[in-house]
């Protein structure tokens, strides 16, 4: 049922199989998770279930690969039987599952495997049926901490001339909670009004958000995603952290792609982990890369691609320039023939005709959303609170 | 003291036993786990199966666990392990919960084969049903109800009834979940189950409501009476349910609402208060983190909300489209469904449907279909430049998708019709067959549905266009594109284009018949038949003096088609031969006197309809978010939503609304973005068309051979047919000027403009000399039964035109002179980015927490 497949990029996720069956599949890392459906069921329910299976397995097994799944196949079986009951999804919540199927504890497992006996009595399973199913009673931590991580993604398509075709800022508010008891948190943001389309964890009280624009919640224990948001277009920053332009040109037999990168303002923060990936056509060969800074790598797979990385860059630095030259195999002859026939030049760039840019700006929020206050109610201790901002490139592509 | 000693002895004995087991275990585990490579236990499970029986009967828990793992590994690998069923069943009451879980998995796998043995386990389950631990109770019921042995149906029924009143919601949920299973096992129990479910409907715990609803829908399908009294309470608790419960409840309530309320009118027709309550209760689900919940809420809005409130689904759908590729695919299918019915919903989100280079092919295809659905006056300004980019794309599917958008744009945005049409003409000359065919098809649609004909644009008359298209036959190599041209010529043979031109096209087509593709051959056969049947308004044959040549051509084409390799072509020829018989076919003369007058109309209507039928029809209205909608076909088990009642149903009591949940009227109004209309104006140009009628065909009327191979100059193709006179730009830019509404800020940096370079490429296409009159019989060696046309007729197609010195300019979008793209690229392309953004430093209050970036690794 589960097999390693290198790439399923072109297969539709909801795929019609023979005999009226439909295959619904997702690929996460090297594994493909496949559900076969023969009757009407909303495909998103199946996809959410598969996603839930991946999350639960990751929590129980750790890194998922063919090997780890084989090693823990009984855990996989037990989890699946708790998650789905004769075709009905029962739960995908890992907090609930943890109560039903014990998480294999690494220490226990080592002792068991070596000694052959389990130490300590088997824990009786239990589920939390309270009104806060995501948080059990009686959680204790020696140090009380609460961390907030605001990660923003910039999705952009930059046109040939450097103009921005589309541009989206979206973000996640992730938290890591280590708090004792049943605390209630209230988070106040500086500009909640620019959050255009907000999705909350079920623990957030939607009513408080609708009326006062504050986020009130009883946090689950451990790591969780409190909210994701999309920034309204009117509030989007007026400039990208990175100005990229790409130009493709062609002389007699050489194809050239020129990419220039200038750093934007970003509140004076450096742009880090800068990377550009340029997939080249199948028939490209003799690939040469020129750049003054950074390191580059040419992958000569089919299709070949050029990867270029640099450590960091600041606003005001000299713009970076990357130039890629390559030749095309066996195209010129056919080309001339077609030209003679009066046709347009043939499909030059089979595959992708864009460069993909990657970057990260730590301590910078593209939407300028900040956490103004984080209050703890109903518990007497004072926790340690921390917040961190980072802006990353999402799907940032430059056409040429 | 003695007591102390005996204790010590017992302790020593225990220690000895422990150490023995310890060392045994050590050896055993070293064998099993230590020395093998990871995962090999799973791969080699069947090698030590002989040991399983002993371990399961007499082993320790640890050994039993290993034995069960071994068995399950065998099962998982698809091998048969049913012979151990008896040994396994013995362990169903094992002290170790983990062993028990594995036993259950095995039991459910083989219970159907070993029914008698499976019954042995039932006692244990019944004991577990009274366990003090809620998880054990629920698990026992879950497993027991999953055993597919009809004999235990009544026992399970009893258990369901007892546990549906359990104090734990977890157990009550298991009881509800058992209902659909029990129903599948024994349909006879339906009435009993329906009664039990009816009692469960009052369920208060958010944990169990979803399962109860599921049970209700299984036991009482299509029954909505019991819903009345719970309706308001359910609306109120909807946000508190777990995600899977929300999905079930919304599905039920949507179906319920479709039977209980009246169809929401387009006008401000007052909705039932409960109808509004349901819409408002569903609204928060649009913001769920679970995409399936969002989709079911979107579906509820699509099928229940009045059109004015439908805008609420746009953002959630767009969010799902932006999510991962799998979710995006399903969301796009639903977005397309919505866009085809309510395009205005997506007007503010046009840019979210722009194809990105990282999109999978299926996502690109759907995105462009959405764009085609939502292109309108309001969105044309944004879509136009983007489509110009797609048209130049190196990926054929993108260019072909762009054609569909151009077609929709031409049809819907009248101001841009001409520009779109010009772009299509350029794309029709594309080297890639799929693109050329799609473009030619779009051209045909536009000409037939009157979009272009009605423009009265002096710059481009139908006559010019048809002449231009007929010319492209010299260069075009795509079968589909050629077929469309032949079809167009047939369709407009009676227009100003004239039968003489049509006749000449037929002549050229007949000459290259052997080299044509299947589609083109079929259209050629049809063309000849239609010309033959075409009647002049005054009654005579349309071709007039050339009717003898036409008849000869028709016979020739029919003969070639009759012996064609393609079944389709032979079939079409045969059908057409019945409509307009050859001189030799006298058998049906009598029938023909009746059919004859109608045949021409029959042919004409059939082919036009075929061309105009939309390739991407809206399709039957499947429920939004359903698998049937995604697959485009009705899946087994699909149940359409009930239709709205024609008359308002009797008012019923829908229970009380608990506590604070007051129905707020959420406004459905959507703050729409300012939109602008692209200022696209037709291109001015000169080149007056030459309307002179073509010269008469040279050559002897009786010599078809000579006629077929006669110079292409026989018909005077006017200069108007040349590239330039149609006002075709050298570049395929649809909207060559930034729209006036975009403002200076945009035009300085957008760069959506062309180099206004003079179109040197538009060569004066004088009559090109088609294929050399080679005498080689390349057409397949058919001995045509045409007098004097033995072999020369099937000369190769005239495809290699040498006169076309087009530069074939690569389609490039240039800069606008004076523009400095780096000045503010981010601002480009956005509408209404007015007002300065607050500086980051502007804080309302001092942050209470420190920035602890350094703390995090």
Automatic annotation (TrEMBL), chain A:
BP GO annotations: intracellular protein transport; vesicle-mediated transport
Xref: Pfam families: Adap_comp_sub, Clat_adaptor_s
Protein name: MHD domain-containing protein
Membrane keyword on record: yes
Similarity comment: Belongs to the adaptor complexes medium subunit family.
Main location group: membrane
Location(s), subcellular: Endomembrane system
InterPro entries, sorted: Adaptor_comp_med_subunit, AP2_Mu_C_sf, AP_mu_sigma_su, Clathrin_mu, Clathrin_mu_CS, Longin-like_dom_sf, MHD
Keywords: Membrane, Protein transport, Transport
KW Transport (keyword) present: yes
GO CC terms: clathrin adaptor complex; endomembrane system
MHD domain span: 143-399
Lineage top rank: taxon: Eukaryota
Ranges in coiled-coil conformation: none
Organism of provenance: Coemansia biformis
TrEMBL record, chain B:
Primary location class: membrane
Domain of life: Eukaryota
Disordered: annotated span: 739-857
Record protein name field: AP-3 complex subunit beta
InterPro entries associated with the record: AP_beta (IPR026739), ARM-like (IPR011989), ARM-type_fold (IPR016024), Clathrin/coatomer_adapt-like_N (IPR002553)
Gene3D superfamilies, sorted: Leucine-rich Repeat Variant (1.25.10.10)
The keyword Transport is assigned to this record: yes
Domain Clathrin/coatomer adaptor adaptin-like N-terminal stretches: 53-579
